[in-house]
Amino acid sequence: MFEVETYLRRLGFSEVPAPDAETLRLLHKRHLMSLAYDSSHFIKSFTGFRNVVDIDVDATFRAIVVEGAGGVCHDLSGLFRRLLTELGYDVSILAASQRWPNGQFGPDFEHTFNCVRLDGETWLVDVGFAGPSYLEPLRMTEEVQHQFGCAYRLTADGSHHVLERRAVVGDWRSVYRFELTARSVSDWDSPQDTASEEIVKNSLFAGTALRGRATDNGQLVLTGRRLLTVDDGHESIRTLIDKAEFEGVVKDILAGTGNG
């Protein structure tokens, strides 16, 4: 059963906080540090985007918050949306598409995250992205925003906003693109782009598990055996050949921490 107090304790809160911008920042960061992204189960069961956002909140809460399993965007963002709503935030569902290796964006509904409207401002809130991405909420603004050594900006692509990120070294890279249109769970009830769904099933989810978790000043992103470490905006990549080391990194990512 979904319980606000249990959820908050998992994120390091001893009491119910006020629904303000600072609380949102802390909740977002601690969520990414405490509850891991893990697609290893999802890739085995994915058949399309229909109904995937309509999670069983109680069962998902028990598996992820209570028992410590990882989840994908629909699980993690769905739980966080329920928590924020219970705390009194004005929350909406957003849909996004990621840029694929061929340079094109995927289907608009492949990723789910949230936005919060608070004190006249709109904040992007995403605790269900493996990374690398933002660790704290981002304001919808034309200004460049900085977090833990990385820079973020929003650019235009037709009717879409494109969220871009830049590490200490390197160029701007797209995280995903989206329309600032509030969605409902029913928007995923019918196929949006069956051709793109087939591409997703045959490529992105072709047996390669994606796992990720935030650290105090960065992120760990494990794609198969390829580990990306972000530390104060500095990125390093290496392949984990040794089985014991690989299993240790997976364990570390899934364990999480309540601090931050």
UniProtKB/TrEMBL annotation:
Pfam families to which the protein is assigned, alphabetical: Acetyltransf_2
UniProt cross-references to Gene3D superfamilies, sorted A to Z: 3.30.2140.20
Gene Ontology terms for molecular function: acetyltransferase activity
InterPro entries to which the protein is assigned, alphabetical: Arylamine_N-AcTrfase, Arylamine_NAT_domain_sf, Papain-like_cys_pep_sf
Superkingdom per UniProt: Bacteria
Transmembrane residue ranges: none
Family classification: Belongs to the arylamine N-acetyltransferase family.
PANTHER family referenced in this protein's UniProt entry, alphabetically: ARYLAMINE N-ACETYLTRANSFERASE 4-RELATED (PTHR11786:SF0), N-HYDROXYARYLAMINE O-ACETYLTRANSFERASE (PTHR11786)
Listed name of the protein: AstE
